[in-house]
Design a protein that fits this description.
By secondary structure, the protein is of the alpha+beta class. It is 36% helix and 27% strand. It has seven helices and ten strands. Strands 2-10-9-4-5-6 form a six-stranded mixed beta sheet. A four-stranded antiparallel beta sheet has the order 1-3-8-7. It is rod-shaped, with a radius of gyration of 67 Å.
Length: 300
């Protein structure tokens, strides 16, 4: 048996170096996409279904190994589940527990082209990025060799049910602020209107009470005037319309002088006739004597 010469060893080493240098370019040949993406929203308690599409394999007879990785920013990644090249599903890390085994399912939807990843009963802790990493594996000289790699990711947002209902109804968060502001404005206006109505009611009540009080005072004054008119003359008591003129002496209790039944009528005297002075004439025979003045003339 002949041993290989040193020239053959150099050729094999050069081929290995070329294969290693071409390795990174080959890994970029596998095309992987994840749907739905790049972001999807679910409510708490819903089921999430992610699809990993694989294309542009180097060889049709090669096998695929599919991994799903849960990522939290910035660099934390946790391997969740893997489907080997033989189609066996394996769990890793904390996802090996029975609780996660029931919630996580990895199925082959289409032969070596589409893989379906199902997460049941989503919780707030399931929110994050999910990365699908696919590796193409084939035999080369009776050894399994990775021909190419590919990966794609999507983001799952887990929101409360109320938020999703509002988003479906077309009410974003910005409108909620204006709705709250509108409610506050309506409340303030209602309080103002009620205050104005109460103020008006109080004023009306006070006006009615004041009217009643002034009516009572007018009645008391009228009654007091009538009582004063009765104690005075009978003529004043018979005329309640005309106001009574009460002097200070009557207020003290002095009674007016009694009116006589019939006033005395003065005697009508005839107007005296004035006599012209006459000269005294001396009669020789008889002496003329003037009559004595009467009482009536003396009185005048």
């Amino acid at each position: 048996m002949r041993r290989p010469g040193p020239g053959l060893g150099l050729v094999v080493a050069a081929a290995a170096l070329l294969a290693g240098a071409a390795g990174p370019d080959v890994c970029e040949a596998l095309n992987v996409t994840v749907s739905p993406g790049p972001r999807v929203q679910y409510a708490v308690g819903e089921n999430a279904t992610l699809f990993c599409h694989v294309s542009q394999k180097r060889r049709t007879e090669s096998l695929l190994a599919v991994r799903w990785v849960f990522s939290l920013p910035p660099v934390q990644e946790y391997l969740m589940i893997k489907m080997t090249k033989y189609g066996v599903v394996q769990y890793y890390g904390n996802y090996t527990r029975h609780f996660y085994r029931k919630r996580l399912l990895l199925l082959e939807e289409k032969h070596r082209t589409v893989y379906k990843f199902i997460i049941l009963n989503l919780q707030q802790t399931d929110q994050g990025h999910y990365i699908c990493k696919v590796q193409e594996i084939g035999k080369h000289r009776n050894k399994w060799t990775a021909w190419s790699n590919g990966s794609a990711s999507t983001e799952i947002q887990v929101l409360p049910t109320e938020v999703l209902d509002d988003a479906a109804a077309g009410n974003p968060r910005t409108w909620k602020f204006f709705e709250d502001l509108y409610i506050c404005a309506v409340f303030v206006c209602s309080v103002g209107i009620i205050s104005i109505l109460l103020f008006t009611l109080v004023i009306l009540c006070q006006t009615l009470i004041n009217k009643k009080r002034t009516g009572v005072r007018h009645y008391l004054v009228k009654c007091s005037q009538n009582s004063l008119g009765e104690t005075g003359s009978g003529m004043a008591s018979l005329s309640p319309v005309e106001p009574m003129k009460v002097n200070g002496k009557k207020e003290k209790g002095e009674q007016p002088p009694a009116i006589p039944a019939k006033a005395p009528i003065a005697h009508a005297f005839p107007k005296p006739k004035l006599l012209k002075p006459q000269r005294k004439v001396l009669l020789p025979t008889e002496t003329a004597s003037c009559p004595p003045p009467s009482d009536n003339l003396s009185n005048t």
